[in-house]
Amino acid sequence: MLLLPGICYSKDMNAEALHMLNEDRLFSPDPTRRHLARELYATVRDLPLICPHGHVDPQLFAEENHSFGSPAELFIIPDHYVFRMLYSQGVPLESLGIPRRDGGATETDHRKIWRLFCEKYYLFRGTPSGLWLRQELADVFGITETPDAANADKLYDEIAAKLATAAFRPRALYEKFNIEVLCTTDAATDSLEHHQRIRESGWKGRILPTFRPDAVIKLNAPNWRENIDALSAASGIGITDYKSFIAALENRRAFFKEMGATATDHGAESPDTKPLEISEAEAIFARALAGNRDEQYQGDPYFFECHMLTEMARMSVEDGLVMQLHVGSYRNHNADIFERFGADKGADIPTPTGYTYPLKPLLDRYGNHPNLTLILFTLDESCYSNELAPLAGHYPTLRLGPPWWFHDSPNGMTRYLDGVLETAGVYNLAGFNDDTRAFCSIPARHDVWRRVVCDYLAGLTLRGIVTEKDAQEMALDLSYRLAKSVYRL
Fold first, then answer.
1. pTM, entire model
2. Residue from 250, 177, 163, 205 nearest 58 by CA
3. Which of 370, 446, 450, 468 is least enclosed by beta carbons within 10 angstroms?
4. How far apart are the first and last CA of the chain?
5. Are residues 231 and 332 in the same domain?
């Protein structure tokens, strides 16, 4: 095995493990910068993990002995980052055990699913998913071999044996990962029963809900009318018009806050926030309740969602919940996959997005209000330097979320820091969140961010832009303190 000069390797790692996890991964090959990056990284590497936004199922923690299931159930079936890559190379989702909407047949032999994953593991070379998987396998499960067809059964047995032990239960791994707080994302209609059970269990882990009302705000969402009925039932308010709809949302926000929520989350088609006159909002909502889909009203869902974003900001001003806005994704772009498998199956695609004009109506009302924190996320990187950083560098309500989805990668993180730091500074950023359904990948995702940040700050230090003391403080803030303070955790 080739050992590179000047690179720090762990003494207890064998040759294959060295191949799996280079201790200087993501640091510059320049020895001076690499040395400084190492020193910065040493100060943040073991900090607790603040996880303010993600999609881990709270049910995992509701019972002390809950199991992740099989290796396929842990690594493949719930993770669209993984199966979208396999699908792109011609692997049918049915063969990966992804459930069909119609209940049709899919692969149920999890060992067979795992073998297929291992055979295709090479597809993840050079991708952020490859980085996360490699670190997850090595650090969490002690796997020191690169998966392939030859060792698939062996690795399956090793992982399955560990998943069967108490040390690999979700609560135990939460503590092993040194997670300080983890926030889930929950529908407005959710009973939060799993969160309640966590509370009642006496376990000390902090699993907090996040209020996401998309399914009742988007008038063209699947099963919207049924979702409204569920909102009525959950809030105890009969929703017969726009006024009662707003009252039901406010009721649910208050309940989420009682359950520990500090934030809301909104996945919008556009950052357009133009409000409607109340009479217009009432008329649109009445047409939706009546099922009126006349062609002349086809713009109703768009206009209503724009209006509701500003209305959500108004509610955040009143109840103090931090507002997150994720925009710029064409959801379920592959119509066939959506028809057969439903949403969140790896077919969401970034779209060009503008912010300066669309956000102005909301900012005209609340952009200077001390009670509102609005965190912006984008999939359109071109907006970072020419729109988002200048906006966040001025409006006291705005903070910028970390690189999201297709850009939560080493290169994406570096481009993000290049695009926003000079104009917005560090303290108009929201730190890092992992935004994942794959619980066991959380430490790896945070580690990638911390390594990239430390290498970036080492470069600024060597160029004389910041001092070493500045860089140490910035590394601590970006790795830990900002997420904790911005999300009010």
1. 0.94
2. 205
3. 370
4. 46
5. yes
CB atoms within 10 A of CB 132: 26
Q: Which of 443, 445, 444, 440 is nearest to 68 (CA)?
A: 440
Question: Which residues, in sequence order, are bridge partners of residue 376?
Answer: 325, 400
The span from the CA of 53 to the CA of 421, in Å, is: 22
Residues 268 and 253: their CA atoms lie apart, in Å, by: 19
pLDDT tens-digit readout, 188-223? 999 999 999 999 999 999 999 999 999 999 999 989
Q: Which long-range contacts (CB under 8 A, 24 or more apart) does 343-350 make?
A: 343/222, 344/80, 345/80, 345/83, 345/84, 345/93, 345/98, 346/80, 346/81, 346/83, 346/84, 346/87, 347/84, 348/405, 350/379, 350/380, 350/405, 350/406
Same domain, residue pair 118 and 158: yes
Range of the domain at 131: 67-168
3-state secondary structure of 208: strand
Single out the residue in 129, 145, 168 at which a domain terminates: 168
Listed in sequence order, the residues at least 6 apart from 423 whose beta carbon sits closer than 8 Å to its beta carbon are: 385, 389, 390, 393
Do 57 and 161 lie in one domain? The reply is no
Distance CA 402, CA 264 (A): 17
Dist. CA 330–CA 333, nearest whole Å? 6
> Domain ends where: 153, 168, 183?
168
Q: How confident is the model at residue 232 (pLDDT cuts 50, 70, 90)?
A: very high
Name the one residue in this structure whose structure tokens are 């055979």. 119
Does an H or E element contain 375, and which? Answer: strand 374-378
CB-CB contact of 114 with 71 (8 Å): yes
Q: Please count the helices (runs of H) and the strands (runs of E) in the chain.
A: 24, 11
